Amino acid sequence: MRMYQVVTMYGDFEPWWFLEGWKDDITSVKEFENYYDALKYYKKLWEKLHADYPSFDSKSSIMSAFWTEDEQRWCEECDEDLQQYHSIVLLTDWQEIPSEWRRPGYNRRNDEGKHSACSLAK
C-alpha cells in the first residue's frame, strides 16, 4: 500500500534539491493513505505559509519554499549569509511524486531575486 507524506522543513536549500542530509531539515511529517487527502493538507499548509512569508517558489512537483529576506544565517565554511527556507513537500513513499500527478497550477513564484546558497554544497 502506497503512503503519502507531507513534510515541512526549515533550512538552507529549497526542497527540490534533495541534497545529502536533506532529512535533517525536517520539522514535521504527516502521513496519509489517500493522495487527495495529502494534497488537501499540503494546500492548507501552502496557504498558511503564503500568508506568513512574502516570497515563494512553488514547483508542479508539489514542492514549495517560502522565505523572508531577513531570515538568513552565516555560513563559516563558505563565508557568506545563506537564505533560510520554510518548505513543504508532498512525497509518496518518501520519493518525489510521479510526473503524471504533478499540479501545473503550483508552478509559480513571486520573487525573482538572487538567493544565496552555500557554494560548497553544489
User: How many strand segments?
Assistant: 9
The separation of the N and C termini measures 35 Å
Structurally, how many domains make up the residues? 1
Question: Could you tell me the mean pLDDT?
Answer: 88
For the biggest sheet, the summary is: 7 strands, antiparallel
Q: Give, in order, the helices and strands.
A: EEHEEEEEEE
Query: What's the assembly state of these chains?
Result: single chain
Computed Rg: 14 Å
Protein name: DUF1033 family protein
Biased composition (Basic and acidic residues): 102-115
Region (Disordered): 102-122
Pfam family, one: DUF1033
Model description:
The chain has one helix at 35-52, and strands at 4-11, 26-32, 55-59, 63-67, 72-75, 80-83, 85-92, 95-96, 108-109. The protein is built from one helix and nine strands, in the order ββαβββββββ. 23% of the residues are buried. It has one domain (4-100). With 122 residues, the protein is mainly beta. 15% of the residues lie in helices and 37% in strands. Strands 1, 2, 3, 4, 7, 8 and 9 form a seven-stranded antiparallel β-sheet that branches. The mean pLDDT is 88. The chain is globular, with a radius of gyration of 14 Å. Residues 102-115 have a biased composition (Basic and acidic residues). This is DUF1033 family protein.
